[in-house]
């Protein structure tokens, strides 16, 4: 290879610089040839293609710092890069913006833009949104992998109390961490079901008992079961609170607030029963206790802690606030219009059930939602026609936003499964890289032995190959398991 004085090297002006605007260069990216002119490339002088024009006068060192290979005869620069991504990136020189083709990985495309030194600001907003979603997915995968590694790792510098906290937290919050943790999760699930069943069965009159004052109350056996369930919930909440790494975040979490609402009514009603009678009338105490007992229905929401399906549904509804708002708006407009029409059309009938427009709201609600209790119904022909139109409009209004809500649910559910698989795959890659690192060190040691002749009389016939590197690891596979493998 000759340097800048080679006769095959591009001609330059007397001052050592080319006429950049008239320069024509050929770029070969992954076997795809593209011809560019200086007037296009110099619009963005900071990019790699624009630097190719200015590097011609700097010799081959300057050229090969920008490309993989160069043919001075054809004035052709070679790059071992993705040609499909390159076709998208060169749009910036002609249109001033870049769009990603469908099927290209956004993260890889971002890396390609960084290689060609094209600023991300030229990427269109729709593509930026896709890129940001992929970044969030990668961050979520990294977070999950880090959580798994934190659970597997043991920091010797931590105090015994810190290690005990981490063990209790993993024991109660992560059922997949061990078999006893799964048993505890199943027990917690059963206690929730038993408590909910006891709450419902306790309202059956045949199972209630009458106290000395003639008031009905829950059977003592059911009351004892309820107390045992509350004791379990209380112990579980206290242990989780003590072992939580961030107490404030734990206390403000939605599911933990639900746990408090499921426990608190029992203790408040117990306090009112024993101390409230001294401060207020007995009837007021009983009313307060009954009002608190109905709050026990909050414990059914504790099932969401053990059900990924309920968590996915909750997230889908949170992501569908816009669609739910549209649904409520459609129904509100329809209820107002059809209730007013129904009231007006039914006034001519002597036995009308539509006494006022606010009363007609109830009829419009049960009609548009296709419930139809039949307590209020039209009796005139126009009123019946209005009712038919109202429930047809109600079906359409309810059906319109259902599809986006279902899509949000399916998308989030599939995304969670993909993230879990990606996190496991990332751990496997980390384990494989760790094994390759050990293999590389074994290979270097073996090569040193070959050079020093320490293998014995067969050293002249010993050839070190890549397969030789892994013989040692494969032979120990039956006896050696990594930390990650032992926890799968």
TrEMBL record:
Coiled-coil intervals, chain numbering: 415-452
Listed InterPro entries: Ion_trans_dom (IPR005821), K_chnl_volt-dep_Kv (IPR003968), K_chnl_volt-dep_Kv5/Kv9 (IPR003971), KCNF1-like_BTB_POZ (IPR048010), SKP1/BTB/POZ_sf (IPR011333), T1-type_BTB (IPR003131), VG_K_chnl (IPR028325), Volt_channel_dom_sf (IPR027359)
This protein's UniProt keywords: Cell membrane, Coiled coil, Ion channel, Ion transport, Membrane, Potassium, Potassium channel, Potassium transport, Transmembrane, Transmembrane helix, Transport, Voltage-gated channel
Domain Potassium channel tetramerisation-type BTB span(s) in chain numbering: 25-126
Main localization category: membrane
Bias kind Basic and acidic residues: ranges: 8-20
Keyword Lipid metabolism attributed: no
Location within or outside the cell: Cell membrane
Membrane topology: Multi-pass membrane protein
Record field: transmembrane: 183-204, 248-270, 324-341, 385-406
Ion transport domain: residues covered: 182-416
Any GO CC annotation of this UniProt entry: voltage-gated potassium channel complex
Stretches for region Disordered: 1-20
GO biological process entries: action potential; protein homooligomerization
Superkingdom per UniProt: Eukaryota
Record-level Gene Ontology MF annotations: voltage-gated potassium channel activity
Pfam families found in the cross-reference section: BTB_2, Ion_trans
Function: Regulatory alpha-subunit of the voltage-gated potassium (Kv) channel which, when coassembled with KCNB1 or KCNB2, can modulate their expression and their gating kinetics by acting on deactivation upon repolarization and inactivation during maintained depolarization. Accelerates inactivation but has relatively little effect on deactivation. Coexpression with KCNB1 or KCNB2 markedly slows inactivation.
Subunit-structure text: Heterotetramer with KCNB1 or KCNB2.
Family designation: Belongs to the potassium channel family. F (TC 1.A.1.2) subfamily. Kv5.1/KCNF1 sub-subfamily.
PANTHER family membership: POTASSIUM VOLTAGE-GATED CHANNEL SUBFAMILY F MEMBER 1 (PTHR11537:SF171), VOLTAGE-GATED POTASSIUM CHANNEL (PTHR11537)
UniProt name for this protein: Voltage-gated potassium channel regulatory subunit KCNF1
Organism of this sequence: Fregata magnificens (Magnificent frigatebird)
């Amino acid at each position: 290879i000759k340097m800048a004085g080679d006769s095959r090297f591009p001609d330059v002006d007397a001052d050592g610089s080319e006429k950049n605007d008239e320069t024509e260069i050929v770029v070969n990216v992954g076997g795809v040839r593209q011809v560019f002119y200086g007037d296009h490339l110099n619009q963005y002088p900071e990019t790699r293609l624009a630097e190719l024009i200015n590097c011609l006068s700097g010799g081959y060192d300057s050229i090969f710092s920008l490309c993989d290979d160069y043919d001075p005869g054809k004035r052709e620069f070679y790059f071992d890069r993705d040609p499909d991504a390159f076709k998208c990136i060169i749009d910036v020189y002609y249109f001033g913006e870049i769009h990603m083709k469908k099927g290209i990985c956004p993260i890889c495309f971002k890396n390609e833009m960084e290689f060609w030194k094209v600023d991300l600001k030229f990427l269109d907003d729709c593509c930026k949104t896709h890129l940001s979603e992929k970044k969030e997915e990668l961050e979520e995968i990294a977070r999950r992998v880090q959580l798994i590694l934190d659970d597997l790792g043991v920091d010797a510098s931590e105090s015994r109390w810190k290690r005990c906290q981490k063990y209790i937290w993993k024991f109660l919050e992560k059922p997949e961490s061990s078999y006893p943790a799964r048993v505890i999760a199943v027990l917690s699930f059963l206690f929730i079901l038993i408590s909910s069943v006891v709450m419902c069965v306790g309202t059956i009159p045949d199972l209630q008992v009458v106290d000395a004052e003639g008031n009905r109350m829950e059977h003592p056996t059911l009351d004892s079961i309820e107390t045992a369930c509350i004791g379990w919930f209380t112990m579980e909440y206290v242990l989780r609170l003590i072992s939580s790494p961030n107490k404030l975040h734990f206390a403000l979490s939605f599911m933990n607030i639900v746990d408090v609402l499921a426990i608190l009514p029992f203790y408040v009603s117990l306090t009112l029963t024993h101390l409230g009678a001294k401060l207020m009338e007995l009837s007021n105490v009983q009313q307060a206790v009954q009002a608190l007992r109905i709050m026990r229905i909050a414990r059914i929401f504790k099932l969401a802690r053990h059900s990924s399906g309920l968590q996915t549904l909750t997230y889908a509804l949170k992501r569908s606030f816009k669609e739910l708002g549209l649904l409520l708006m459609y129904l509100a407009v329809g209820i107002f219009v059809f209730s007013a029409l129904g009231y007006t059309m039914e006034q001519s009938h002597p036995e009308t059930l539509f006494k006022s427009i606010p009363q007609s709201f109830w009829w419009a609600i049960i009609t548009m939602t296709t419930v139809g209790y039949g307590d209020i119904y039209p009796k005139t022909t126009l009123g019946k026609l209005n009712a038919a139109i109202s429930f047809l409009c109600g079906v359409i209004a309810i059906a319109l936003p259902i599809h986006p809500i279902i899509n949000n649910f399916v998308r989030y559910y599939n995304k969670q499964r993909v993230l879990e698989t990606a996190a496991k795959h990332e751990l496997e890659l980390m384990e494989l890289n760790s094994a390759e690192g050990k293999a590389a060190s074994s290979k270097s040691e073996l090569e040193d032995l070959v050079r020093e002749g320490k293998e014995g009389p067969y050293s002249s016939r010993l050839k070190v190959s890549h397969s030789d590197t892994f013989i040692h690891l494969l032979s120990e596979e039956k006896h050696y398991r990594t930390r990650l493998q032992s926890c799968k």
